């Protein structure tokens, strides 16, 4: 349950931004880093669908090939332009991002919510309508990096939790083959946590990297 007691300064700041409904506003649509949208006591939408304007990104890689790429119009027939809200606990290792794989990096995916495509979308306008200043999402570059660092640490913590659970289960496995299978899966989860942290240079930034590796599970 958020907030977590994080030691890494950048990831800790990213969590603050994530949970701040006046700044990052991430928690409004991804409550507790999950898939539940909750805009307040009278607006708990559960796992909802939103039109975030991803299909309006001007330079989607698939379209840069100049080959005809059909527009994804979301749910229903004809489509309503909406897509399902995903959980974020292991978002860092699911790239490329969005339903059309239009953004390669986690940092780019966070930065998307600063852009014209999102802020002009129905979802962006809804957030702006909830803001006293009429602002949807407006983060600077360092804040984008901080939110991404938090999501990377969150992903790594889940990898570590799964790895420990696999090792504990493997200890009581009936056969050596089953124990080996659990060990291999635990090693995969551990490797995944390192890869996720390295992807955003979280482990190469002195105090930030050392602290992030010691986050509480």
- Summed over residues and divided by their number, the pLDDT gives a mean of 91
Residue share in helices?
40-55%
* Radius of gyration of CA atoms, rounded to a whole number: 19 Å
β-strand percent reads under 5%
Order of helices and strands: HHEEEHEHHHHHH
Q: State the shape.
A: globular
Describe it.
This protein is mainly α. It has helices at 9-19, 26-29, 61-64, 106-111, 116-119, 122-130, 141-171, 176-199, 207-212; strands at residues 37-38, 44-46, 49-50, 83-84. It is 46% helix and 4% strand. β1 (37-38) and β2 (44-46) form a beta hairpin. α1 packs across α7 (141-171) and α7 (141-171) packs antiparallel against α8 (176-199). The longest helix is centred in the last third of the chain and has 31 residues, at 141-171. The protein is globular, with a radius of gyration of 19 Å.
């Amino acid at each position: 349950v958020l907030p977590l007691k994080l030691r890494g300064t950048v990831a800790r700041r990213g969590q603050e931004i994530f949970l701040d409904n006046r700044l990052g506003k991430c928690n409004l649509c991804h409550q507790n880093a999950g898939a539940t949208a909750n805009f307040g006591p009278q607006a708990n939408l559960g796992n909802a669908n939103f039109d975030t304007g991803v299909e309006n990104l001007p330079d989607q890689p698939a379209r840069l090939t100049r080959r005809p790429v059909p527009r994804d119009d979301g749910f229903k027939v004809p489509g309503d332009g909406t897509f399902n809200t995903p959980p974020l606990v292991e978002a860092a290792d699911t790239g490329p991002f969005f339903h059309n794989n239009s953004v390669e990096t986690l940092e780019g995916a966070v930065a998307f919510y600063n852009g014209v495509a999102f802020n002009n979308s129905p979802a962006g306008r809804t957030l702006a309508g909830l803001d006293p200043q009429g602002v949807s999402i407006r983060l600077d570059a360092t804040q984008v990096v901080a939110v991404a660092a938090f999501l990377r640490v969150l992903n790594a913590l889940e990898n570590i939790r799964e790895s420990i659970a696999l090792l504990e289960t493997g200890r009581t496995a009936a056969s050596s083959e089953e124990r080996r299978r659990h060990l291999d899966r635990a090693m995969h989860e551990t490797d995944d946590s390192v890869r996720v942290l390295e992807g955003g240079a979280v482990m190469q930034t002195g105090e930030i990297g050392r602290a992030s590796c010691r986050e509480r599970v």
